[in-house]
Amino acid sequence: MGRVELILTTNPGIEDIVAGEAAAKLAAELVEAREGHGRVVVRVDEDKLYLVEELRSIHRARLLLARGSVCAARSCLDEVYRLVLESGVEDYLTPDSSFAVRVTRAGSHEYTSLDIARVAGDAVIEAARRRRGFRPRVDLDYPSVIVAVDVVNEEAAVSIELGGDLSWHRRGYRIYDHPAALKPTLAYAMIMLSGAVDGDHIMDPMCGGGTVAVEAALTFESSPVTCMDKNPRHIRGAMMNAAAALVGSRIRFLVGDATRLSSYIDSVDVVVSNPPYGIRMGSPSKVRRVYEVFVDEAARVVRKRIAVITPEYGYFRRLLESRGWKVVHERRVAHGNLYPHIIVAEPG
Ligand SMILES: C[S@@+](CC[C@H](N)C(=O)[O-])C[C@H]1O[C@@H](n2cnc3c(N)ncnc32)[C@H](O)[C@@H]1O
């Protein structure tokens, strides 16, 4: 049984969550995690590879074939060619398969991503011709095999995309697209950071399209999950998403106002939520008022912890502390072009 290396990509800020999930589900050994870069390299037994699909914290997974160094000069495109040629990429192609090269380039080089794609494509064709005796077909739109070539400063890596062109967090259940939807990978990370365990009652009282609720139901088999939003349209959307994720019957849906949380629910173990950002609500003072009343209401029902993601983190943290909550964790993550914080707190 061989060991292989995987490049797992994720949302910048939750690399440790990816490493932890890969260790737990794939018995993966961490090779490298660059914090803030959204990229984790792990080593796993080949016979565990099929379990990659179960990782909820990743965007993409790639099978690493070769790594090497390249210089910035144009002549160093030859090094990219050699790296791809010697990577063993031909083992993943058949005479019937088509392929495409996808390039990620960062840093300053005398060549472009298109130049890299061209030489890497030539090297893939040459590798298959030399060692397997066929010429693979290029199909940039619907390739059966995607060869990823990353050139970051002086480092180069060749890998095979597992799971095709679509980012895994976009798959599956997003039938209803909430205008301010959270990425499922971040929702999963928040659930993990909240310290929730299977069996805990988990609630998102401002659940929008239900991302947190769906991730909670997919993560924990026996946890009751409640998804509430004041907007009935979003609750209908959340029900559609949950049904598409096959967890519709596991989630209780409520139309209700989080600033009156205690009138809907007596107690809940963990609240995990992505409250509205002031940007969309028009006024920061309005959103702060919602936060204040919500925090006081949460104090009446939350037994274990609350985890929120907000770009108003300074304000939210001070608010929690002034109301007697103990902040037990805080971190910065990337979400679109914003850098909100995830804050986890326990009632005082
Ligand atoms: C940022 S969105 C949540 C998006 C959600 N995490 C998702 O992935 O779809 C915030 C949600 O809070 C809801 N909301 C705002 N004020 C609320 C309140 N007082 N009570 C309940 N829901 C509220 C909005 O309707 C909106 O759907």
Walk me through this protein's architecture.
This protein has 348 residues and is an alpha/beta fold. The protein has 2 domains: 3-168, 2-Layer Sandwich (VC0802-like); 171-346, Vaccinia Virus protein VP39 (Rossmann fold, 3-Layer(aba) Sandwich). The chain has 9 helices and 15 strands. Strands 2-3-1-4-8-7-5-6 form an 8-stranded mixed beta sheet. A hairpin with a 2-residue loop joins strand 7 (145-152) and strand 8. Helix 4 packs across helix 5 (211-219) and helix 8 crosses helix 9 (313-322). It is elongated, with a radius of gyration of 23 Å. The model has no long low-confidence stretch (mean pLDDT 94). It binds S-adenosylmethionine.
Tell me what portion of residues adopts beta-strand conformation. 25-35%
Shape: elongated
The major pleated sheet works out as: 8 strands, mixed
**Mean pLDDT over the full residue set:** 94
Superfamily at the CATH H level of the largest domain? Vaccinia Virus protein VP39
Structural class: alpha/beta
State the helicity in percent bands. 25-40%
Widest sheet: strand ordering: 2-3-1-4-8-7-5-6
Here the CATH topology of the largest domain equals Rossmann fold
The number of helices is 9
Q: Please count the beta strands (DSSP E, at least 2 residues each).
A: 15
CATH class of the largest domain: Alpha Beta
Radius of gyration: 23 Å
**Total separate domains:** 2
Q: End-to-end distance, in Å?
A: 51 Å
Which compounds are bound in this model?
A: S-adenosylmethionine
**Based on the structure given, which CATH architecture of the largest domain is correct?**
3-Layer(aba) Sandwich
N-to-C SSE series?
EHEEEHEHEEEHEHEHEEHHEHEE
User: Could you list the spans in which at least 5 consecutive residues all have pLDDT below 50?
Assistant: none
